[in-house]
Amino acid sequence: MNDLVFTPAYQLAQMIRDRTVSAVEVLDAYLARIVKYNPQLNAICKLDAERARERAEEADEALARGENWGILHGVPVTIKDAFETAGLLTTAGYKPLKDYIPKTDATVVARLRAAGAIVMAKTNPAKLAGNFQSTNDLFARVNNPWNLNYTPGGSSGGSAAAIAAGLSPLDIGSDIAGSIRQPAHFCGVYGLKPTDRRVSTAGHIPEVPGMSRCIRQMLVAGPIARSIEDLQLCFSLIAGADPRQPEVPPVPLDSPSCKSLQHVKIAWTDEVNPYPVAQSIKSAMQAVAHKLSNAGTQIDQWIPKFDFISAWQVYLTISAYTSPISQPFDFDYVRDSLTLMLGEATQGDRALRKISNVPKIGFSTALNPNMKGYFAALTQRDRFIAQMDAELEPWDAWLCPVAMTPAFKHCPTGTAIEIDGRKVPYLMASGAYTIPFAFTGHPVVVIPVGSTPDGLPIGMQIVGQRWREIELLAIAREIDRVVGNFQHPRNDWVNKAHPT
Q1: Is 179 one of the catalytic residues?
Q2: Is 134 considered catalytic here?
Q3: Which end of the chain is more exposed for a tag (fewer CB within 10 A), N or C?
């Protein structure tokens, strides 16, 4: 059973096509594991077992007739509960949507179904995809499968926890600040943040259904899985132009150069000033560089000239212009936003709070929004994108931390996160290394590369050039073969949960 639920999606698809296992058998294995372990994790927030089993039976019958629905024929998958799923509850963890059942699928969901995948469940997100922990108004908080006292991250925390714990082989998450990458790092799995506007986000919440679409930069959809091969397979299915979002360009997928590790130029960084990284993460990054060097890779330690502090502040300005007006005004939303900003202003190292500048930017923009300021911020973003393009041009990929911290214990939003004895503002602790690439729109693959002394996973960002995801995934696969470290969570709670 464990071998089946931890088999990569692309291999499950081949096994189903070869009829060495049935789609019903695969689905039942996952449903049994969800029943056994999800009560401790809360990674799954809505199960669609009856319809999924009907569809799995149809998949097996179709194969018996010689029909093939597509590359994921009969493979069960999960979807972050920020994406609309036709006929299946979609809430984004937001009370006003507690009974919302969409009539149509989000584009990424429709494309997976068209490839033969079966949606068996929705995964538990942060409320309105807006937090680095996965808590919301409707469902119990998501727990990290490596230690239930720790967060799996957010906002795709349910997605990453489900993949790590073997509750699903493949999930679709979303990322506007690190919401695919930080949970992948915290849970020890693989994630891909594509180039900005490479994948349609039509049908993603926010915005709340019925409201004007305001978030038009930096938000991306991407896969979370247990292998690079599954990232590539899923990405190839969901990428591409979409009539529902005309700004997604018809840019064809790139072709990999098929360079070996001995013929690529890799840059690596274990820490960027002024964002101190946990020693366990620095040690893991140094170990990666050492292993790749021993494998014959040209790898050089590198600090870019990119102005991370200014980029952070322009990102926050753009976010402040778009995020509040994409939600209906309600007290809970305003309270949550104020709690986060006040936490950044009052908790954590004073010097780091000053750098963060979240409250000043948030309040000033909210109190005095104007089109001139918005377009000035977008113009600044264009300059930062061009600078990042230029700095990455000599390299095939850049390796850097995902966050300043590994997974941390559950805490109220806005609480300072302690990293090696230093208290770091909440947003900065998780977002300092993810936000720059959300801001510039560059693609990033996250792979697991180690663990802390306490046994928590450590991931690493592999950053590539825009519109070159296939090349980046090919390089990531070669790196993963040398330094990858995916493991199944092995904890006391796993052994004790519903013993059979």
Answers
A1: yes
A2: no
A3: C
